[in-house]
Amino acid sequence: MTLNIIVYAKESQNINKLNLLEDPLLRQLQEFAKLLIIPANKINDIDKNNLSLLWLLNKEAALLIKRDYEKLPRPILFLMDENKYNLSILLESVTWLNTNSIYSEILYGDIGYIKNRIQNLGHILNTGNRLLDKRIGILDSPSPSLIASNVDYFLTKRRWGISFIDIPIKLNPTPIYTENFKKIKTEIPDSMDFYPPLYHLLENERLDALAMDLFKVPKKLHSSFITACNKLIQNNIPVTYCTDPQSIFTMLIGNLLIGDLPVFTQPIEVDRTQNQIMLITYSTAFNDMSPSSDSTFTLLKCGGLCLDQFYLATGTLTQKMITDKQQTILTLQLDNPIDKLLRKPLGSHYLLVEGNHSEIFNDLFIHNRCIKA
Length: 373
Hints:
Elements: E1 2-8, H1 24-29, E2 34-39, E3 51-56, H2 61-68, E4 76-79, H3 87-99, E5 104-107, H4 111-131, E6 135-139, H5 153-160, E7 163-167, H6 195-204, E8 209-211, H7 222-234, E9 239-240, H8 245-258, E10 263-271, E11 276-281, E12 296-303, E13 309-322, E14 328-334, H9 338-343, E15 350-354, H10 358-367, E16 371-372
Parallel strand pairs: 1-2, 1-3, 4-5, 6-7, 6-8, 8-9, 13-16
Antiparallel strand pairs: 10-11, 10-15, 11-14, 12-13, 12-15, 13-14
Helix pairs in contact: 2-3, 4-10
């Protein structure tokens, strides 16, 4: 791991002569990362693929932060050094940033905590970089019935760097006739292997994720379609069986962040007394799992027209039932009040992932200026 240490010292000082790498705090950081010492006047030349820490070493630094705020690498992280007595300068700088709605964080405490925060934030930065130029396919177009789940393609491109691609379905409505000019009726087969054409579509269109509409598929082929979707998911390809742009984005970014694909679910019932929510899914990811008090799950969604809001909760799987329609019904006992979801919902679909990933997801969304619903 490589860290940029951007130093705000007196402009007359030559930081190379300060021998900063011998500082006790920086020596501890060097145990797990390579440090690049960069003077503040070279801030435009830093490698933005590296996490950057701001180190304020003189009382004029707050004024320089105000001058440079547009250039500051995101996330804005300040390194507090007790030996340098720079806390008051940091508080002044962070207060000014807060009043201008610019998120920042002061890293302080024992080196174990600082190391953990730096590694988490570095992982988040890497996830954001990997997300750039990803392509999400929406087969046909976003579902017109999901009136609150659409996104503005232009704004999401500016915010996240991703592209949503509407892929038209090409149909040939011309009927086929016999030599006697009798119309040939096309029979729908009982089953069909959707996997090869879907995989071919993903490759040809250079897609990293794909949202499709199950209910545009003939009913007798639903089983075949769901099987193909689950096969793609088993190959770690984000796929939803509903053209919900917000959900497919959440699935993609979740996969990039934690390495596991969140499962696409739809809430069907809530129990306010027990603080439980019932979710339904066509995924087979949880079929072999038994309900347990130790089985922690994370429920999440990134929503809003430009994907600038998020919902996040944890809970325990208390009940699971598999129906004869390839559906799995999951009952989740939430740790967070169910009222929060009902008062400020983010659409009709949510993503579920095994394990407690609330801290890393919260950091991801907060550092990308998202508002918690």
